[in-house]
Amino acid sequence: MITVRVPAKVNVQLGVGGLRADGFHDLANVFFAVALGDEVTAEAGEAGEGVTLTCTGPDAASVPLDDSNLAARAARLLAAHHGLTPNVRLHIAKAIPVAGGMAGGSADGAAALVACDALWGLDTPFETLLELAAELGSDVPFALVGGVALGRGRGEILQPLPVTGTFHWVFAVADGGLSTPAVFRECDRLREQAGTGSSEADVPTPDADPALLAALADGDPAALAAALVNDLQAPALSLRPALADTLRAGTEAGAIGALVSGSGPTCAFLAKDAEAAVAIAKSLEASGTCRAAHPTYGPVAGARVR
Ligand code: C5P
Hints:
The chain is an alpha+beta fold. The chain is 35% helix and 28% strand. Helix 1 (70-81) runs parallel beside helix 2 (104-119) and helix 5 crosses helix 8 (233-239). Residues 23-25, 27, 137-139, 154-155, 180-181, 184 line the site of cytidine-5'-monophosphate.
């Protein structure tokens, strides 16, 4: 039996370009891996059993256990790549909010790739795992890489970034999720409404912010807090206006930076240190503007056998 630990992500910069002909958006996506994570276990199944999936955790009821689950798809994709018939029991111990903008489903896909690779003794080159991960979804390669990385293209072309020290975060989990495609569609709609247009021709290709990269390299939380930016925040707030109350509550509780995580609805808060993160999480839970709040830290490594 193999157990793989895999991190969630927050995007410290999410610059969204115009809508491409293939339905995706070009991004300048600075991914940051945090210790809040899932564990995926892979155990050999009987011959003919195929891929089976179970899940535990507070949100387990909202995790799909059919073929739409990226962990099951990852096991099948890796087996097909090697010409194998997969017989594996996958179990997800779920801590990452579901449909929360923290790439939890993508994390489970990456973890299943690593777990099945070890269980089946395949020793697949890391470059090949990255290619398979990109087939599964835009955020899956980063969950393999971890740390901090700039994602270009639809987010799958990764360049690791230098970072100093540890940053302390709080994640406020909302009731219910938001659909990533719906938030991207709302982003396009708001751009059309503003008269700027939403196509590749209308929107300049986003680039990483040098001030943000310097803040990460210097290990400077105040500078990172000032540079946090997410082009999906306005569309997420448009679909879920109550998130503004969550962002305000975290800021009033002493967070030095606040933003919606990815496509939301989870809100991310940067704290000046670990102690402040615990206090901000307590205040957020008491504020009634979120379902739960978790202090954590990063960056941490990508999907690894435990
Ligand atoms: O790649 P993934 O399957 O995670 O993407 C889910 C959806 O999110 C896409 O179908 C698309 O609607 C949207 N998306 C996008 N631009 C990206 C990444 C995702 O429009 N760079």
